[in-house]
Structure formats: structure tokens, C-alpha cells
Known about the structure:
Layout: E1 17-19, H1 21-28, E2 49-50, E3 55-56, H2 93-100, E4 138-140, H3 142-150, H4 158-167, H5 177-194, H6 202-206, H7 210-217, H8 226-237, H9 245-260, E5 267-270, E6 273-276, H10 279-292, H11 297-310, H12 316-339, H13 348-355, E7 360-364, E8 366-369, E9 372-375, H14 377-382, E10 389-400, E11 403-422, E12 427-436, H15 438-441, E13 442-444, E14 450-452, E15 457-458, E16 464-466, E17 471-478, E18 481-489, H16 503-506, E19 516-517, H17 545-548
Parallel strand pairs: 1-4, 10-19
Antiparallel strand pairs: 2-3, 5-8, 6-7, 7-11, 8-9, 10-11, 10-17, 11-12, 12-15, 12-16, 13-14, 14-18, 17-18
Amino acid sequence: MRFAKEDFTLRAMLLCTINDFPAYGNLSGYSVKGKKACPICDDATVAPRLTYSRKNVYTGHRRFLSRYHPYRRMKKAFNGENESGMAPIPLEGDEVYEQVKDISVVFGKPNKFEKNAKYKKKSIFWNLPYWKHMSVRHCIDIMHVEKNVAESLIGTRLTFRERLKMATSKVIDPDTLDKLQADIVETLCQFEMYFPPSFFDISVHLVVHLVREAKLLGPVHLRDMYAFERYMGVLKGYTTNRYRPDASIVEGYIAAESRHEGRLEGKGTIGAKWVSLKSQELNDAHFLVLQHLTEAHPYIEEHMRILKLKYPKKNYKWLVEEHNRSFVKWFRVKVLDELSCTPNEVGETVKWLAYGPNTEVKSYEGYDINGYCFYTKRQDNKSTMQNSGVTLVASSTEFSSGTPTCNQMSYYGIIEDIWELQYTTFMIPLFKCKWAENKKGVRVDEYGFTLVDFSTQGYKNEPLIMASQAKQVFYISDPANDKWCVVLQGKRRILGVDNVVDEEEYDEFDDIPPFSEGLPSMPVEDNLETNYVRVDHNEGIWEDRDQAGN
Length: 550
């Protein structure tokens, strides 16, 4: 039953452990050194000892060949003998348990073991009720096998490394595993023909067991140590004080995490300073904020209704211009009147919006928001990177034969200033941009590239946009004509930042699309959502002459 709200016992199962080979021995209790160092071959491990090197080597791979393979009869190429032995059969879990069940180890005190004992302790994992029923309890770590074997063979036997990659690929065809095992064994035998015995340490031998584990446990990428080792490399990179590496790693990790803080909701990064805006600039910025905050939408609709009732003979274009001119003052009076009544339903956000922003704004030369890193044009000129290009898509209202129609269009600009408006308890970041005029300065060539000409500056009366709704683009000079720039879409990296796991879900906006007044439409993607209002300019309004005279 779904949502039964009942208590239940959650159970977890340990499938296997993944470690380098020394840790393999620590967890399993098996001695991974000496004559019986292979825990899979166990007693059948072939490990002759080199007298002068004083080390055991792990050969005898001809046992894993098919019964009538010609290599079995080649004496001179190997150890001077025919090979009649067969590949050892790995012990099942219950058989291993019988070997370790009576081992008693008291930690912290000396313990006596038989000479050449295979197991030094009984692993705590045997306390799991299902552990002795598992065919593979500890996995061979392919990462360390590749590091110790494959990389040392570059330039000598590249095909061997290719076969290792086949065994460790994300997609495995079960029908090819037997052939892959035969190829690996044959290659190991060829190594025995040409390489000195000292080459065959335990890592080389473990390769012969990789296919077996792939058959039992599936693709290796689900149980290797690459991800953990890479991340350990990241953590070790934070070490600046070798005398206190643990504390150094903690400090470095916290510093790295703090760099992501604010990358989505907005955070100034470069050139912070306080500046005073002119009265008209501050009023335009405040009006832009009101147009785009959901809390102010009921007041916008009410103000438009009042204007329509008060001026019934005026056309829609005139009503919008009057709304743009008078709404800020009307909004302040309206909210303050509501606040004078007790009780009232005015929210905190609406209250501080009515009081308006501080006359001083915080200015930046760099700003991180929505997964992008933005710079002003001034900062771009000091940098080798370009981060000042922005674009946004807005709904535009066109007037044709007296009927307003809405279309989507794209705007392209360059950031000139970055401001944070301060509203006592919260702040709103804005970008002041230089915009290309869409009718004359934006076109799509025959190859489908969008070209922009910033010499045709447009929309000077509305340079501001909400920083949260800007997307980053890059402008590259057109080789055929320096006057034009080719627009390239920017990329952002937000997965994993502030718990974002789905970028498409993060991009979802409100269901109510805002609108724009008076710009010619341009083709944009059908699935592109708009979330922007552009209503405070008179440039480029299309309407019939008859309507214009009304």
C-alpha cells in the first residue's frame, strides 16, 4: 500500500568489497603473499621461488588453456615440461568458511599461526548470514591491475591492454566472455615465452580471474575504484601543509565548496563597490523588479483594470505606456494604504517593495548566477575570456490592423554594469546592457548562424534585465564581415551544485508568461520558454497608421 505511514525494517546487503590487493588481504583475512598468494587459486597456486631474487613468481597459466592447446606440449618455450594440469576450481563460500570458522584471533595480543598458513584471521564479514553463500565476496580491483600490468606493457603488447578494456567495458556480451578468457590466457602464456619469470608478480596473475568475476557480478564499472581514487586525488590536492594533511584537506574542501555557494541564486565575485544612481535610473530599475516578481502581479492587473475604466477610449498601446509611467507611484500609495488597515494581508515582500530600494546600489564587475559566470565589458577587456555576452527570450506584442498579437523574440546584448538593488531584507541583481537593435542588427545567415551587429544599438530606454533570467552567449567576429558577430550559445555546469540533479527541471519557470511591447518578432526554438517582460520603451513599435492616429 502506498503512503501507509507504517514502520518497517529497512535491510541492506553487502554485495562485495572493492579494494587494492593488500587491503583485499586485510578484509578477507587471507595472506596475499608467499606461495599461495592467489585467494582464488588457493592451494593450487603455482608460485615457484626465484633463488637469487628471493621472491615468488606466479606462472603456470598453461593450465587455463583448453585441453588440447598446442602450448601445453611446448617444453622449450616454457619450463621444460608438458602441462597436463587443469585450471583450479574456485572454492565456494561454504568451503572457505570451513577453513576459517575455527580461527580465533585476539586483537592486541600476539597470535601464533602455522607456518605458511593461508588465513591469518576470520573476517568479521562471516557474521553476515548470507556471506558463505556468495561465490564472490571480495572483488579484484581492475584499476590497480591495469595500473600495475597494462601500463607497463605499452609498446610491447598493446593487444593485451585492449583485451583488458573489453573485460572492463560498460556493456558486455555474455557470448564473447569465453573467447575473451581464452585470449587472455593465451596472451599470458605468450608472456611466459618471452618475459623473464620476475615479470610475473601477483598482479599479472590476477588478470586470469577477471572474466570469471565479470560473469558472476556483471560489468566492472559498477564495482571498480576509479571514482574513489579520482576523488581521493582531488582531496589530496587540497593538502598545503604536509605536517597537518588532514586539517589541510578539511580547509581546502570547505573553501572549494564555498566557491559554489551562490552560483545559482546569485553572488558577486569581482569589483564590489557602492554607487549612487540617478533618480530615473533607480525608478526604472525598481519598475523592472515589480514587473517580474510574482507578488506584484495582482497589483499590476488591478492597475491595468483601473486605467481601462478611467480611459475607455484609449488604445492598448497608450494604456501600457501610462501603466509604465505611473505604476511605481500608484503601487506605493496602494500598499501603504493597505498597511494602514489592521489587520491586513500584505506580505513582507510586497511591503518592502512598496518602500522601494535604497538609493545606493552595490555594483560588481563579475557575478555568478544561474550556473553562469558573468563579467562586465570592462572586466572582459582585462581578461583572456569573454563573459559579458547575454541573451534572453521575451514575448513581444505587435500591433497589426488594430489587433495586438504576441510573438517570441530573442535579444542579444553586452553587460555594461551589474547592480544589486537593496530592499532592506533582500536584494535583486540586475544587468545593465547594450542591446543590438533586432530589426537592423540581428539576422540569420544561410547556414543557420545568428549574426549580431552592435553598431545598431537599440532599446536605449530599457537597458536593464533581471540577472536571474539572463543566459550567456559568446560573440565571435565574422571572418567575412568584421561588422557582424556570430552568436554561440554558452554552457553552464550546475549539476551537483546546490543539489541540482536535473537541469531541465531546474529551468522550469512560472506558468504565466510575461509580455513585451513593440518589437518585431524573430524566429526562436519552438520549445523555448520565455520568462521576461519588456514594456518600457517606444522603439520599433509596429502598428497601422490608422491606429496610430487614434
